[in-house]
Amino acid sequence: MTDLVGVERRDGHGARSAVGKRERLIDGARQVLHAQGVESTTLADIAKAADVPVGNVYYYFKTKDDLVQAAIAAHADEVANTLAALEHHRTPKARLKALIRMLTEQRELTSRYGCPQGSLCSELDKRDDELGRSCAQLMKLPIEWAERQFGAMGRRDARELAVALIASYQGIALLTNTFRDPELMTREARRLERWVDSLN
Amino acid sequence: MTDLVGVERRDGHGARSAVGKRERLIDGARQVLHAQGVESTTLADIAKAADVPVGNVYYYFKTKDDLVQAAIAAHADEVANTLAALEHHRTPKARLKALIRMLTEQRELTSRYGCPQGSLCSELDKRDDELGRSCAQLMKLPIEWAERQFGAMGRRDARELAVALIASYQGIALLTNTFRDPELMTREARRLERWVDSLN
Amino acid sequence: MTDLVGVERRDGHGARSAVGKRERLIDGARQVLHAQGVESTTLADIAKAADVPVGNVYYYFKTKDDLVQAAIAAHADEVANTLAALEHHRTPKARLKALIRMLTEQRELTSRYGCPQGSLCSELDKRDDELGRSCAQLMKLPIEWAERQFGAMGRRDARELAVALIASYQGIALLTNTFRDPELMTREARRLERWVDSLN
Amino acid sequence: MTDLVGVERRDGHGARSAVGKRERLIDGARQVLHAQGVESTTLADIAKAADVPVGNVYYYFKTKDDLVQAAIAAHADEVANTLAALEHHRTPKARLKALIRMLTEQRELTSRYGCPQGSLCSELDKRDDELGRSCAQLMKLPIEWAERQFGAMGRRDARELAVALIASYQGIALLTNTFRDPELMTREARRLERWVDSLN
DNA sequence: CATGAATGAGCATTCATTCAT
DNA sequence: TATGAATGAATGCTCATTCAT
Predict the structure, then answer these.
(1) Closest nucleotide to residue C42 (Cα to C1')?
(2) The domain over range C1-62 is classified in CATH as 1.10.10.10
């Protein structure tokens, strides 16, 4: 009621509060979906997290699935950006190890709620709809990025190595979550870094 | 009074349909929960899969969670038995590779619905109740089994290796499911077998 | 399975376990209905209190209402007997005061669950069926008994006094129950005894 | 859009159907609960009486108990107001007799469904929850009001008299209901008025 | 656009009653 | 007669979605 302006100015081309709300909804959705899973999350949960009236959600998203889709897309954007940011490391090995370190830094959150992408995939893969396919896109990003790094290292088996790396991460994220033990990730990360170092 | 044997064949000392139904319900639950996930599965789904009237489910299980719990327990039993059956291989290495092969053999199902344990853990870890804890028990079984094998190989880092192996499997199961590509699992399995062979 | 005989011998004219069970069911029903009310009591509750398998109840009573009816009838019998037993007091006044004292002695139970007759009437009066009418019969007993006593005292307004007395008791039973305070009944009983003494 | 005024007439500053519906639900609940009792009344019954779709009830009340609670509270309000309105009589005796007369005027309804407060207390006292306690509050109101009147008459035993009066009313209400005979209340009311007159 | 309210299909669960043996 | 099991209608409650303003 007070600082609507502050909250809502966001881009310079005439969009107004709508933009802010849409983003708030997506951000809220990402948080709540990560913490609770897709099926267990109601639109009301998301609306509340975003501080948006429930009825209003439908001016931004036609259905709940649409909003979930948008949350996944936003997630994909962030992942892409994060991966891009890793490019400044000079060598492919350095980049791969930087990825590992980055993921490890989130171990506390992971131990509580699992890897956001992994959780989404695991849950939505059961469904045979657009949402399931979106998840696959999400998972492709780090795999292809890692494949490029391994490729830059001259590895013929770059794809296989990339898959192995990401699988290891997804797996250890799941175990970290299952046992609520962040240390599991720390140890596995060290192992993976050593592994990367050992290649070639 | 008539054909007890034919309908209820189960044991020779008076057990009747009750036993069969309880098991049918648990089996039905395991199937449907694997295929659809816990939250998306209604009691009606399970009852239908087990060919039991919905109202009757409550004669055997007090709540839906109770039934899910029983399904998890049954799953744990099977896992334990399966692991025990691997003991007949002579060397720890042979046992570990046999495990990998066995898991790989299920790649078609995994590619459609994911690893049953992994899916359950991923979904139920979000909850902070008994069910979540049951999942952890489920996941412990293969890890501790693998740890024993690596230990028998004389590895000091047996636990870490066990975690790494199971993590790799869980991760590749997730990717296999996400991309609906059983081949992913085949390739990763080869890699893991080679890795096991390379140890010591 | 073991001491069926011991449990079921009950009368000497050839009746067997049936009699014992029927009575146990009725007794169980009376207890549980008093404590929980009619609508809140399931057949399973009663069967359990009577230690009789649920399915078996239907060999003794066609419906739940039938069993409730029988419980009310048994209650009526007991009330009639109790009132008859009061006849040994020499004067009507003594009899009336004895009734008051007797009711007061149950104040602890009344404070927890109310007057059994009152509760039944209050709940079943809402219904327009046989059960409601049974309750009226139940309530008539003490009124008519009291009316006879007041009549024997030579009161022309015997009926009115009887109604007033029973009403006072029913009312104080309700308040005693509502406030969980047995003392309320003690005090009102003293008042009613004084009132009886003051008549004529 | 059309006849909002007629349907929702309630206040002139923008209040809308919400207000009307909440009240309609409470009013409907009061009626139906009085007529059928708490346990026998389904939410659908109440919703129908209030002409509100069942699912919508939950927009106004979180649970059935919540709605019952609200109905009790509304009842308490009305009782309080009614008692306050009796204050305009000049003497305590006049007030007490006015109360008796007022209650007697409802004898037709009472003979069909019992005293609303009494029924609620009788039924809910069996439960050991918030609802039971609310009922006690409801019953306290007339007792304390009567106590004040007897106190104003200089009676040291004001509380006891108040309890006796309300008990008599509750009891006769029960008998009136049980025997479906409004005359019972008429006669007892006369007796109580005489009794009040006879005091001091 | 915004919002509180409305709607109805769906779900877990209960329970009186019936059935098969 | 005895009994565990079966059945299905009903109930309280949830929630995605829509409506009215």
Answers:
(1) E15
(2) no
